[in-house]
Specification:
By secondary structure, the protein is α/β, with parallel strands linked by helices. It has eleven helices and ten strands. The protein has three domains: 106 residues, 3-Layer(aba) Sandwich (Cobalt-precorrin-4 Transmethylase, domain 1), CATH 3.40.1010; 105 residues, Tetrapyrrole methylase, C-terminal domain (Methyltransferase, Cobalt-precorrin-4 Transmethylase, Domain 2), CATH 3.30.950.10; 44 residues. The strands form two sheets. Strands 3-2-4-1-5 form a five-stranded parallel beta sheet. A five-stranded mixed beta sheet has the order 6-7-10-8-9, with helices on both faces. Bound molecules: S-adenosylmethionine.
């Protein structure tokens, strides 16, 4: 007789490739849960077959209507429901956030079973700095929105982790090289599967490599942090101030150039006045 689980929501990470990457605890909870909430019942059925587990599957994703979610939340009062996604950790570019939020708001027991996630696995394989990183999920599909998102990422002093698909990879890498400058990066593919690969180089190298050769399989892009900012040289600052003074009063010219070089306006104001007077 299998001991029953405390009612509530169990967030269960599942493998991202190699089925042996499931944890003992994940198998135990999947066996003992009353039901399994999954985004795609066919994908989850394959995993359960492999584990020889038979359980009712509730189809759930965050686009499910509020009523469906409310029904799942209500069941958490008396049943142990395991939440899984197609692969990896639920909620990480996958459904579950709304369900977890509402389950907690309703006062139910919610716990998580840590396990594989492609973002963390790729970061560890990339050879890029791991001390600070930002996970940015999938970039928007449309070029303008994608480029705006890249502009937002540019000033971050951290590695960046992105999910991507093969057909979009070349264009995304070219946009990243254009928007972030030529940073070190890695294209990490098919983690824990037969053709696992981590290709490293600058963003421009990688954009060239994949421009006409979209790779197969599942992909994570990892980008290293920007290099140390070079101290701006006085000549470059004077040239920028001289150009800005053709259009602007000294105060505004100083503000514009200070913004561009990451300096303080007050530090450039006297220089702008002197340049103006020397004309
Ligand atoms: N929740 C999942 C996780 O924790 O990794 C991610 C789900 S997201 C919908 C799927 C994306 O994750 C894929 O498009 C790919 O970018 C990445 N991914 C998943 N499995 C992967 C693998 N084995 N190798 C490389 N990337 C993978």
């Amino acid at each position: 007789m299998i001991e029953t689980l405390q009612p509530g929501l169990y967030i269960v990470a599942t493998p991202i490739g190699n089925l042996q990457d499931i944890t003992f605890r994940a198998v135990d909870v999947l066996k003992r849960a009353d039901a399994i909430a999954a985004e795609d019942s066919r994908v989850t059925a394959k995993l359960l077959n492999h584990l020889e587990i038979r359980k009712p599957i509730i189809r759930y994703d965050d686009h499910s209507d509020a009523e469906t979610r409310a029904r799942v939340v209500e069941r958490l009062g008396s049943e142990a429901i395991a939440l899984v996604s197609d692969a990896g950790t639920p909620l990480i570019s996958d459904p579950g956030y709304k369900l977890v939020r509402e389950a907690k708001a309703a006062g139910h027991y919610v716990t998580t079973l840590p396990g594989p996630s492609a973002a963390i696995a790729a970061l560890t394989l990339s050879g890029l700095p791991t001390d600070r990183f930002l996970f940015a999920g999938f970039l928007p599909a449309k070029a303008k929105a994608r480029d705006d998102a890249i502009t937002e990422l540019k000033p971050l002093l951290a590695s960046i982790v992105l999910y991507e698909s093969g057909p979009r990879l070349g264009k995304t890498l070219a946009a990243l090289a254009g928007g972030l400058g030529n940073r070190e990066a890695a294209v990490v593919r098919e983690i824990s599967k037969r053709f696992e690969e981590s290709a490293t180089g600058t963003l421009a190298d990688l954009a060239d490599r994949y421009a006409d050769a979209p790779p197969k399989g599942e992909i994570v892009i990892v980008i290293g942090p920007p290099g140390e900012a070079e101290a701006p040289d006085d000549e470059a600052i004077d040239a920028a101030l001289a150009e800005a003074l053709n259009r602007l009063a000294p105060g505004k010219a100083a503000a514009e150039v200070a913004g561009r070089f990451g300096l303080k306006r007050g530090d450039l104001y006297d220089r702008a006045l002197a340049l103006k007077e020397s004309r």
